Amino acid sequence: MRVASKKVKIGFFSLTCCEGCGLAVLDLEEKLLKAFRQIEIVESRLLMEKAKESSEKLDLAFVEGSVVSKHDLDKLRHIRSKTGFLVALGACAAIAGIPGIRNALPSGLKEKIKRQAIKPVKEKAFPLSAFVDVDYLLQGCSINEQEFLDFLNKFLHGAKPRLQEVPVCFECKLRENGCLLLKGEACLGPVTYAGCDALCPSNNAQCIGCRGFTKDANFKALDELFKGLGLSKKERYNLFTYFNQLPKTLSCLESDS
Amino acid sequence: MHKTCNFSIKEITKVEGHANLNVELEEGKVKKCELEIYEGQRFFEQMVVGRHFSQLPLIVSRICGLCNVSHLNTAMEAVEKAFGVKVSEQTSLLRELVTNGEFIKSHAIHLFFLALPDYLGRESVLEFNKEEHKYMHWGLDLKKAGTDIVRALGGRIYQTVSIRPGGFTLIPGQKEIAKLLPLLEKHREKAVGAVKLFASFENQLPFERKTDYLALARQDYSLVEGKLKFLSGKEIAEEDLLKHVREFIAPYSNARQTSFEGKPFRVGSLARVNINSKALEPAAQDIIKECNLKLPNNKIVHNNTCQAIEILHLFDRTISLLKKMKSEKQPIKEIRPKEASGTGVTEAPRGTLYHQYDFDEKGFVKKADIIVPTNQNNNTVEQDLKQFIPGLLDLPQEKANLEIEKVVRAYDPCISCATHFLKVNWKKG
Predict the structure, then answer these.
(1) What are phi and psi of B164, to 5 degrees?
(2) CB contact under 8 A, B124 and A257
(3) How far is it, in rounded angstroms, from Cα B139 to Cα B110?
């Protein structure tokens, strides 16, 4: 247990992204204000207008966004050097998500991008873990606010937060949803990490894989199932790369994309 | 401030971005004033090439956390127009409601968390005194009225899940819809308070510059449909926007700028109210008179007042729509793709948003063109500052910077922007 009198110093940071995850934290409102008794927000682009480039040590840093420029990388390394614990906040930070789509663009287009870039950009969009040690992932596009709060509470009480490594189907079953795959919808639930409380399937919408693919999923089998639904190779490639993470076992889908 | 000097304000804005402002002063005249967007470009227009139309809106909505619904709406409109799909009345109504929710949320966050500290002379909301603390709660309450709508109808606030081309994956029941009303009715008074509060800041930022304005205008103040109107009189069809509005690349910036017949123009709340105030709900029209807000208005501080006016208008409009609404289950319309192009134009919280796509016969994107509000305002901001900065010569540098930032922030450049933007680096010339 931490000593209650000493507030935990927290920073929120943003690399290249839409900043929806940081905003989602703000939506915790009173619940977040309550936590203020135990935490001190030292840096936040959301709450403070002056982003101090402070070297003040942090206990906990949340970083959203992908690394796409040298500026992002320098900032990330600086954050890592001054924080005890680093959390990748959201899909961009955890798996490069949507920005990472450009990593797989045809080389012609990549060339065009390079030419168009007025300031130098990296060839690809990277997750934080490509450059620094990441202590925890809060996945999703956008994050699940409740999961954020659970993590924060555990952290404040000195408990070690653990990733729950089960697929979305697990939570979908708990909510007693009908299976979208059985209804003929191309749902990525079986291969995607849970933790979102099966939000999309519960809204009758297919899972699009925003929380990252589980390690040992049987992608081939799911692809076969999608094929059976009448989806073309290109459509299947589209689906498996919604959040840029084409599994190695499905590299065969790449060719005509 | 020295009469002759160069200075930069580091880390300003783009939509979702980081930018610097670089200024060169010579004998009190602005030689150069450049909004340099240095954030790595995000290449959404290239990234969606090869993507299926069903995915497209969900990908481009990730351009912006604050206005993801606007990007969704615009992309869906383009998809539906391209493939000749007409959505049901209920779908249009639900989309309008979600859009209203997002506007309320977005405006409330900008007004109370980003703009208000400027006008109260505080560095951030965290430094509000006891008296001012209530404004933070006004902001949170107004925001919550908006976010509750987005969550109830879209499934999630940031990056909704149920809004799709052709309809909604899940239509909230009458019970969920009824739950939204009390909160709107309860907090409506704070919207009235917000208008009066921001209207009272006129003397704090009296800067004024006459310019043209662009907005989508319809007689019900619709934020998703209407004709594109310039305040100067020209009306243009959505598909023809690019014939009149020229996008160009400023060589010092990663973001594009735009001009209309060679001249910069403003978009956003001030533009919408200037062009279409007669379409506002009665209470919103009355408060304009009560606050003595002269229209058309060219004071950028009133972009904030107009955001508050829009919150009030949207509260009233949403309340009356919710009261009438009867929800019924409807499947999503089937969409048959064909080789076609589609254009979508809507109002996002920060101004006119434009998407255009070419699709192949199977519905995959061949080409994409997206113009966001902040890029339309960039050019105008520079023109404003050229006129504004010479009047600040008597101020110490840091104070002058703050005044400059106030102008930029009054435009409500996207949140990443507004919050990313305050490291000041001066370089003496």
Answers:
(1) -135, 160
(2) no
(3) 9
0.80 exceeded by pTM: yes
- Interface contact A48-B155, CB threshold 8 A: no
Interface predicted TM-score of the whole assembly (ipTM), two decimals = 0.92
Residue A16: CB partners within 8 Å, gap ≥ 6?
A65, A66, A67, A68, A69, A72, A92, A99, A125, B16, B17, B39, B40, B42
Phi, psi of B176 (to 5 degrees): -60, -40
DSSP, collapsed to helix, strand or coil, labels residue A237 as helix
Closest-CA distance, A180 to chain B, in angstroms, reads 12
Q: Which of A13, A16, A18 to mutate to test the interface with B (most CBs of B within 10 A)?
A: A18
Chain B residues whose beta carbon lies within 8 Å of the beta carbon of residue A14: 416, 419-420
Chain B residues closer than 8 Å to A98 by CB: 47, 59, 62
pLDDT tens by residue, chain A, 257 residues: 444 457 899 999 888 888 899 889 888 877 877 777 788 888 776 666 454 556 789 999 999 999 988 888 999 999 999 999 999 999 999 999 998 998 887 777 676 666 655 555 667 889 999 999 999 999 999 999 999 999 999 999 888 888 878 999 999 999 999 999 999 999 999 999 999 999 999 999 999 999 999 988 999 999 999 999 999 999 999 999 999 889 989 998 886 54
A residues 129-188 closer than 8 Å to B (CB): 141-142
The SS3 of residue B266 is: strand
Give the span between the Cα atoms of A5 and B259, in whole angstroms: 56
Can you tell me which residue has the tokens 């919604």?
Answer: A242
